[in-house]
Amino acid sequence: MNRRKFLSYIGCGCCGFILPSCTTAPITERKQLKIVSEANLNAQAAKIYEQIKDKEKLSNDKKTLNEIKEIGKKMENSISEYFYRESLEDPTINFDWEYILIDNKKVRNAWCMPGGKIAVYTGILDATKNTNGLAAVMGHEIAHAVAKHSIERASRGVLLNTGTQLLDIFSGGKLSEINRTTGMNTIGLLSKLGITNPFNRKQESEADYLGMIFSSLSGYDIRETTKIWERMKKLNKGKKIPEFMSTHPSTDNRIRDLKEKMNEVILDYPPIKLS
Q1: Which residues pair with 84 in a beta bridge?
Q2: CA–CA separation, 270 vs 217, rounded Å?
């Protein structure tokens, strides 16, 4: 049985236990399943964000932090304006945007929590190099939040857990017996077997596409996007794991996909002039 059929069977079996909300991702219109409350997830994210601010060493590089905030503000306004002009619901309406710069040269990363809580690590500045590069990274991370990817992941987790419980009931408790015998968690095994990984790769590709759109709408040069991944490839000294073992598309595939969509984004999503 392939993973799509497996998940569809679980979803059908869970209908009597949970009330899924079927929606679509903004702009791409990819179908999404949302079970978890956005308000609850945003509140949890805000609490965790405060804990991270207390735990991590925040950078005193005010110039870079101000640049991050400026890019973020432009994207906040451009995203909201775009959805307003298109007469669409603004997916960021309940966001409480916030930005921090974490002083850690070893971490080449950035992220955006549900509700618009953003962190950039100083380590990724070696790859971004300039304002357009930084905007490309931030656009990608903001896209995850705008497309509600965390809500999808959380909902998928609920679905898999509920489905496994049902399968355990239907199997007469055999799954529980297997877990006790092997010491393994069934959900963990399902994840390792690749049931959830391809879905995450779809989210990453979607965030790449939406990130370019948000950067373009905000007036940044999205041609810098592929250059970042070229630099990341060099910084990683060619080390990579096969795409099928990763939740992210391979670097080469990522660059190819970005190049294929770049002209479309430039033509269809020009910079928004804000009054």
Answers
A1: none
A2: 6
Catalytic, 141? Answer yes
Exposure on the CB side of residue 40, measured as CA atoms within 13 A? 7
Beta bridge partners of 112: 118
Catalytic residue among 141, 204, 206, 224: 141
Domain-wise residue ranges, the chain:
1-275
Check: CB of residue 150 under 8 Å from CB of residue 35: no
pTM recorded for the entire structure: 0.79
Q: Which token pair is 101?
A: 């710069």
Q: Rounded distance, CA 86 to CA 69, Å?
A: 26
Residue showing tokens 């799954």: 175
Per-residue pLDDT of the chain (275 residues; tens, 9 = 90+): 444 443 444 344 444 444 456 789 999 999 998 888 899 999 999 999 999 999 999 999 999 999 999 999 999 999 999 999 999 999 999 999 999 999 999 988 899 999 999 999 999 999 999 999 999 999 999 999 999 998 888 887 777 666 555 445 444 554 455 455 445 454 454 444 343 443 478 899 999 999 999 999 999 999 999 999 899 888 877 665 444 335 567 788 899 999 999 999 999 999 999 87
